[in-house]
Write a structure and sequence with these properties.
The complex is a heterodimer. Chain A is an all-alpha fold. Chain A has a single domain (22-49, 56-203), classed as Cytochrome c oxidase, subunit III, four-helix bundle (Four Helix Bundle (Hemerythrin (Met), subunit A)), CATH 1.20.120. Chain A is 82% helix and 0% strand. Chain A has 7 helices and no strands. Chain A has helices spanning 3-9, 19-49, 59-62, 65-90, 94-124, 133-166, 170-203. The radius of gyration of chain A is 20 Å and the shape is elongated. By secondary structure, chain B is mainly α. Chain B folds into 2 domains: 1-62; 68-99. Helices cover 77% and strands 0% of the residues of chain B. Chain B has 4 helices and no strands. The radius of gyration of chain B is 18 Å and the shape is flat. Classes of the chains: A mainly alpha, B mainly alpha. The interface between A and B is large, with 60 and 53 residues. Chain A: It is a multi-pass membrane protein.
Chain lengths: 204, 99
Amino acid sequence: MAEAAHRYDETMPLEYRTEESRLNILGFWIFLGAEVALFATLFATYLVLFQRTGSGPTAKDLFEVKDVLIETLLLLTSSFTCGLAIFEMRRNRLSGLLTWLLVTLLLGAGFITFEIREFIHYVHEGATMQTSAFLSSFFVLVGTHGAHVSLGIGWMILIIIQLLQRGFTPRTARKVFIVSLYWHFLDVVWIFIFTLVYLTGMVI
Amino acid sequence: MGANNHHESFPWKHVVGFVLSLVLTFAALWVALSSGLTAKAIIGVIVIFAIIQASLQLFMFMHMTESDSGKIQTINMAYAFFIAIVVVAGSVWTMSFVL
């Protein structure tokens, strides 16, 4: 075995055992940094425009505590179960890993279902993307996050299929770890949507 | 498997992170809806809660500081959040003179 690879063998979890995997994970962190910048521009747009409601409904008219709280709890819990999946992976338990990934997927699907229902509800109340600057920026920000969650669900399904086919290898372990980073990151973005969009919208 | 010998058998870090996240979520909700503070104070408090909760995710769930790249990963995310604050706070501040 090569020297560099040997350095990671003894002390590190499976996903860090090769230099290549460690660099893949570092690269994904840099991608997440770019995602932070992307969402920052959408937050900036929303926060500048959110009181420009024109003749449409305001944030206070539209947002409902119960629906937002259900979405928040679903996504937060899915982030927790995704963490448990990695915990099980590091204990070499494939069945535990698969179980928690499936729970994470179901919670993520639940989140998306509630979000789509919320959007449909708004449209039925006459609050569409074309109604006002507030709603354009709202649907773009929250919709971009929802698109990320949907992508994450598809990605995670593919990773589960690979795990079933190939089991634990340094490569599959690294892929699972990276999809977990992506999933936790979606919750990080949602924390700020919950705070700066929904809670702030209900206060002002 | 060296890594597994000294691995805990119960995910304490995750459970503590999850419970703290729940507490911060409901605390933010209470501050926003029933604390009776001024709008400015409410936003200040709930943004601090959000930053704490995001940090919990990064450190307790995402293991940001682990591996040989831990330092670069942390500096990268700190820089990303610096950019985010400049973009968001800068835009809001600038446009407050216009709107």
